[in-house]
Amino acid sequence: MIICGHAPPEWLAAPAKPGVTRAFDIPVRALDAAVPVRTFSPEGVPDAERLPLLLVHDGPEYDASAGLTQYLSAGIAAGWLPRLRAALLSPGPRERWYSANARYARALAVTVIPELSRRLAVGPRIGMGASLGALAMLHVHCRHPGAVDALFLQSGSFFTPGLDRQERRFRYYQRVTRFVAGVHAGGLPALRIPVELTCGSVEENAANNRLMAATLRGHGYPAALHEVPYGHNFTAWRDALDPYLTALLRRLA
User: Fold this and answer.
1) pLDDT tens digit string along 3-56?
2) Cα(first)–Cα(last) distance of the chain, in Å?
3) Which of 30, 159, 194, 253 could form a disulfide with 164 if both were Cys (CB 3.0 to 4.6 A apart)?
4) Euclidean distance between CA atoms 65 and 61, whole angstroms
C-alpha cells in the first residue's frame, strides 16, 4: 500500500486543451429510462480512430468536483497519458442503479456500451467509479465478463455485515451484501482483468476495500489497493488519479 501526499496535483494548473464533448441520452427499455452520457475526446481525433474508452460512473460529478477532463486533457497534452476518450455517465436514480442492480448491469453491457461503440471506434474499455459507482462497475464485470477490460475503483461500497453494520439502513443493503458475499465466496469471472483500487485510509470503507483487494488477488486478479489521505470525498479521489489511474491507462494503451 502506498500513501500519497497531501499537495494538490500539479495537473490542476497544467496547460490543456478542452477537448471535444458531446452530450446525448441512450434510451434503455429495461430501465424504463435513458442514461445521459457526455463524451470527451481529444481535439482533432476522428470518430473512426480507435482509442481506449474510460467509462465513468457519476461522470459529470467527477468532472465538476475532481477535474476529470482537466486531468485527461493535461495528461494527453503533456504525453504522460495516452490519447483516449471518456464517457461520463450520469447516475440517474443512483442508489437504485448502482446497488448491484442486475437490470442496470445488463443495460450497461448490452445497450450503453454497444451504443457508444457504434458512435465511436472503441479500444480497451476501463470501468471507473467511486463508492456505489465502484461497486456497480465490479458488478458489471461479474455479471457480464468482457464488458470492460480493466477497473479503476475508488472507495468502493463493498459492504459486508461484519464490517458495515452502520450501513444496514441503506435501502439496498441486503442486495449489496449478497453480491459482495458472492464475490468473496468465489463468484468472480475467470476473465481476470486488471483492477486498481484506491481508498482513504481513514474512511469507513477502508476495511472492506482491503478485504476486496485481498479477494481479487486471491483469485488471480492483478489487483492493487492504494490508500490515500483524506476520506470518502472527491478530494481523495481526485488526488489518486495520478499516479494510479495514469499507470492503468498507460498499461492498457
Assistant:
1) 444 678 999 999 888 899 999 999 999 999 999 999 999 999 999 999 999 999
2) 24
3) 159
4) 6
The model carries a pTM of 0.96
Strand pairing partners for 56? 88, 128
**Residue that has been written with the C-alpha cell 484506491 in this structure:** 198
Tell me the pairing of strands 195-200 and 223-228.
Answer: parallel
* Cα–Cα dist 116/109, whole Å: 11
Nearest to 155 by CA among 36, 67, 217, 62: 62
Instruction: Let me know the angle formed at the C-alpha of 126 by 69 and 81, rounded to the nearest 5 degrees.
Output: 50
DSSP symbols for 47-84: TTS-EEEEEEETHHHHHHHH-HHHHHHHHHHHTSS---
What structural domains and CATH numbers belong to the chain?
10-252 (3.40.50.1820)
Grid coordinates in use for 117? 461503440
